[in-house]
Amino acid sequence: MSIMSVLLALTWPWSLQALLVGVVVIITTVLCKRSSIPGLPPGPRGLPLVGNLFSMTKDMPLVFQEWSKKYGDVFTVYMFRQPRVVLNGFRAIRETLVTNADVFSSRPPTSILGPDQNAKGLILEPYTPRFKEQKKFTMSALRDFGVGKRSMEGKILEEVRALIDVITKTENQAFSISRLLKNTTSNVICSLVFGSRYEYDDVKGNELLLMIEQTFSTKAFDLLPIAFPAARMIPSLKKATERYQNNQRKILQHIREEIAKHKETFDRNDIRDFLDAFLLEATKREGDQNSTFTEEQLVSLVRQLFLAGSDTTANTLHWAVLFMILHPDIQQKVHQEIDSVVGPNQDPSMEHRSKMPYTEATLSEISRMAATVPMAPRHFTTSDIFLRGYHIPKATRVEVNIWSVLRDPQLWPEPYKFDPTRFLDGSGKFVRREELILFSMGRRLCPGERLAKVELFLIFTSLLQRFTFKPPEGSRMPSADGVFSVVHSPAPFQMVAEPRKKK
């Protein structure tokens, strides 16, 4: 069967699309000079010219995990003729990102929106002195504005109170909590970055949330034209990519407007938030042509803080509510522990966490099952290396399948079963598991890990302190099957929040 026959036999909405795919494949193959590289780990055989492209249009983490059963924890796939080494399983990922961090800590080249292609924030920045300087500043600034301190707890609890007020007004009526949770987590980021928050009915705030939601609902395959411009010949991919890029331009414009406001009121003796801290650092380096503290770098940093710190945490909380609905017995045990440790009248605090092992175990199991970020951002080798007997050359793209660790039956018996006792010992004490790599590993560990954990604990315990979550009366239980895009999120569902009686 010819390659064109294979393409036309695929399940595409229109035969014209299949024809265009074939044309794109031919063009890309002619333009792409790179061929198969000897010594790379073996992997699934792909189609001529396109490689494994069409197999990877499905839910990639699941596909990669299935392939690992045949090809091992380290294998190679091809996007057209570009190889990508895929890592599955805790040992392979730790060996690569921690033991061999000197080689595997960088990022591949990528074009970004904006006039300064060097302004890649933290997530997209290669492992360079620029990255180290920006990460050091970001971590220091976040600490200065409360991350890891009691003052941050106060900001989070302020948002929780606003959330509880809105939920209370539903008065046992069915509603979706997804957008409300995103309001809460995005406002936490807003308070850190902008020094302000949005009311839940604020038009501009809701526009920002919608843009963030649309960003995370984008399928990876929809962005194929960014890596392979010839794919723009396919109408649906061209449209999806343009929609994504227009969305990002709006987010960037929103951030630039906030920066302009801060510049107008900037006072180096009154540093109010992350934006001010960055502007102060930039003023110290005025005249330095090599300074990395540029306005475009600030725009990229803030965009990434919002995207990584709002939608992902809100999605995990959305999963938390879902699992409480699906497992009322576990919800009841969490209620009992909150009642005994926190009580009905005081706010939860991070000081309570060590006294609440069952709640901590439940949150860990929620995070494992949610697997909100199932694939880590792509890595890139900075030199040749031999890994498990295979030759991985310099400038190879590396995919890290976090999902394969969180759903590994060797680590978690019955991995699709929700069971908080995985994180408890025989005496009921909480047990940390190093395999719970929610924020990846090594030098590119997510800088927002600490804030996310504080938010999850305080928001979850505050909600369970006040409400019992149930399905609407007479309705079917919601599904525990998730939806894969940039993040792994619950399928939409309606719920009821029944106020708990104070005892």
Tell me what the structure shows.
This protein has 503 residues and is α+β, with helices and mostly antiparallel strands. Helices cover 49% and strands 9% of the residues. The chain is built from 17 helices and ten strands. It has helices at residues 3-9, 15-31, 60-71, 90-99, 101-104, 129-144, 150-168, 178-193, 203-216, 224-227, 235-265, 274-284, 295-326, 328-341, 357-370, 402-406, 449-466, and strands spanning 74-79, 82-88, 375-380, 385-387, 390-392, 397-401, 467-470, 482-484, 488-490, 496-499. The strands form four sheets. A four-stranded mixed beta sheet has the order 1-2-6-3. A two-stranded antiparallel sheet has the order 4-5. Helix 9 (203-216) crosses helix 11 and helix 9 (203-216) crosses helix 13. Mean pLDDT is 88; it is low at 1-16 and 29-35. Heme binds at residue 446. Its cofactor is heme. It is a multi-pass membrane protein. InterPro entries: Cyt_P450 (IPR001128), Cyt_P450_CS (IPR017972), Cyt_P450_E_grp-I (IPR002401), Cyt_P450_E_grp-I_CYP2D-like (IPR008069), Cyt_P450_sf (IPR036396), Cytochrome_P450_fam2 (IPR050182).
